[in-house]
Amino acid sequence: MKEELIPDIKIKIAISLNRLLDTTKNFRPNNHNEEEIAKSYNKIALASFLRKATVSDIFNAKSKTTPACGSLFLIIEAMGYTLGDFAKIYDSVTTNDIKDFKQPFE
Length: 106
Prior knowledge:
By secondary structure, the protein is mainly alpha-helical. Helices cover 66% and strands 0% of the residues. It has six helices and no strands. The protein is globular, with a radius of gyration of 14 Å. The model has no long low-confidence stretch (mean pLDDT 89).
């Protein structure tokens, strides 16, 4: 049972992160703060001290396993969000959202 859930969990994480990133790009101006909010995979990778490929794999649900909690927290914080912000979006992801995410890959 656990093995069957992992792909959907990775996809829910990817959907949630992409929604946060879209919100950041569209609705959160930087206002030239000293701490710039990361708005691209590269900037997220630099701010979170992760490889850009790792960030990309997590955002696209391409990793073989679910992302490590530490990596996920670093990515969320690099975008200027809290774990609570992420959790609200994660909980709102539907089975239809998961199917839509999978569709281009099938």
